[in-house]
Amino acid sequence: MPVEGQDGAGGRPAAAHGAFANGQRQLFAALDLGTNSCRMLIAEPSGGEFRVVDAFSKSVRLGMDLERTGYLSRPAIRRTIAALKTCAEKIDHFAVQNRRFIATEACRRAHNGQLFLDEVQSETGLELEIIRPSEEARLAVISCASLVEPDRSQILIVDIGGGSTELVWIDVSQVPPEKRAAAILKIRPSLRDPQNPIDADGAIVVDWISVPLGVATLHERYRDVAEDGARFALMSWLFEEHIAEFSPYNSDDFDTLLGSFQIIGTSGTVTTVGAAHLGLNRYDRSKVDGLKMRSTEVDAVVSHFLELGPEGRRNHPGIGRDRTRLIMAGAAILQTLVRIWPTNCIRVADRGLREGMLYSMMSSAGVLKDAT
What we know:
Order of helices and strands: HEEEHHEHHEHEEHEEHHHEHHEHHHEH
CATH topology of the largest domain: Nucleotidyltransferase, domain 5
Number of strands: 12
Mean pLDDT: 87
Radius of gyration: 20 Å
Largest sheet: 7 strands, mixed
Strand order of the largest sheet: 8-9-7-6-10-12-11
CATH superfamily of the largest domain: Exopolyphosphatase. Domain 2
Oligomer: single chain
CATH class of the largest domain: Alpha Beta
């Protein structure tokens, strides 16, 4: 995904604006409103990939106190609408016609979730859809397909969000290695029937699950536990309890699959762990996206975060103050997964639902060329 003029939360693109205003480019916008963050990409197709024209990302903490009250709070709503107004301005500036805006777990769970989206449309003109967990899983799968290793036949795709975590286990053992990424692009977890798995060019969804625990909800659940190590242990235990019904959790065959097993992780947690593993004090997407790690290397980073304690993590340049509050909740989820399914092949994905939406929209529009 080449990036043109991407500068995070607020800057303007590097390219001349006139090229966009007169419709010379076919642009697509994807907006993902999660429990913790509001993220948007505006991009144009470029061969089998896309080039980012502008981007926005801001921590809005929409789900703050949702675990306790069941409602989105007024301060959280105000923060989020302010961020969405910036997104609307960017979309209007580039006159983007191809667009999709989604909301996930916080709006699914909140009693006032739909009322909030009605307010968003009134205030910003943006119409957001609350997607189902199955669609969230599908978009995560699409965004990560290109990171599948050709020699791996069992793939666990993990999307650790603010309010939920999606796990999708895919068997591509019947797909030729060179066609595995393309087959995974056609996966539809929403169609998975445990008694009759859906076959997409030979790629089979063994099982998928949406766990109603993400970095924000898990942090909120145990925010009153004072001792750092005890809080981490409780978060790990609760997450493992929630995946007990995930069929690969109870599989007796995993030891025989270990050599062909791969985890692909997409989230701020996974990229932060990857950056810490590399010793980066300043985040560099080009070094992190696609990074390969082992389970033992994930464990080493998480253990280091625990040793630092809350104050040490706050001062760690590789974590960042925005993520300090939530990093150990995400680390508890990630370490639980690599403890249950240890592997020497973990790919770090600095991509997620926005990228999944862009690939999906561009594919439907027939503008992606030579896609693998």
